[in-house]
Amino acid sequence: MARTLVAWLEQRRLVPAGPVREVYLKFGARDPESLRLPRQFVAGRPEELLTEVQIPVRVAAAQG
């Protein structure tokens, strides 16, 4: 996955410009009741897990 994302950035002449963040939008928990979160944030099955990757980017410097 990471290589695919880097290749996608390179195709668009973009490079990372800061720290990468992972935001867990829907995650699993052993005891979801103890989290006191709305149910829509807790995944009941692995295929329901949802993570957002945020990468600040800038245009790559021209090579020459």
> For the residues shown, what is the average pLDDT?
88
How do the helices and strands follow one another from N- to C-terminus?
HEEEE
Q: What structural category do the secondary elements indicate?
A: alpha+beta
In helices, the fraction of residues equals: 10-25%
Show unreliable segments.
none
Count of individual beta strands: 4
Report the radius of gyration as a whole number of Å.
17 Å
Which strand-content bin applies to the residues?
A: 25-35%
Shape: elongated
Span from first to last CA? 30 Å
Largest sheet: 2 strands, antiparallel
Strands of the widest sheet, in order across it, are 1-4
Q: Please count the helical segments.
A: 1
> In total, how many domains does the architecture comprise?
1
